[in-house]
Amino acid sequence: MAYTKKDGTVVTDEWMDAIAEAAEKDELPGVVLTTETHVGRPKLYADDDMETVSFRLPKSRLSAIERAVKQKGESRSDFLRNAVDRALIGL
After folding, report:
1. Taking the CA atoms of the chain, what radius of gyration do you get in angstroms?
2. How far apart are CA 18 and CA 12, in angstroms?
3. Continuous H helices in the chain
4. Dihedral pair phi/psi, residue 12, rounded to 5°
5. pLDDT single digits (tens) 5-21
6. Contact at 8 Å (CB) between 68 and 74?
7. Is the torsion defined by CA of 42, 48, 51, 56 positive or negative?
8. pTM recorded for the entire structure
9. 81: Cα separation from own chain's centroid
10. 73 by DSSP, 3-state: which?
11. Is residue 42's pLDDT more than 70?
12. Residues 36, 38, 16, CA angle at the centre, nearest 5°?
């Protein structure tokens, strides 16, 4: 069977089998690129270090935040960062 990539390149089952076999023998053709390995998740703000902020909220407000993050499908931290950003833009 043959597959056409978005760029128009045709890839066959035979070609994929050959690449898989070469990879298993650690003999992949082509240029090996060396890359830096970074442990952990990428920085959210590449140009700025992060600080932890802790503050207290009424339970009812925290419950409302939890409902909102569940509805939006984002983390509590992302929700609160976005809320702070929106508040600062409005200044």
Report:
1. 24
2. 10
3. 13-24, 59-72, 76-89
4. -105, 160
5. 888 888 899 888 888 88
6. no
7. negative
8. 0.52
9. 17
10. coil
11. yes
12. 65
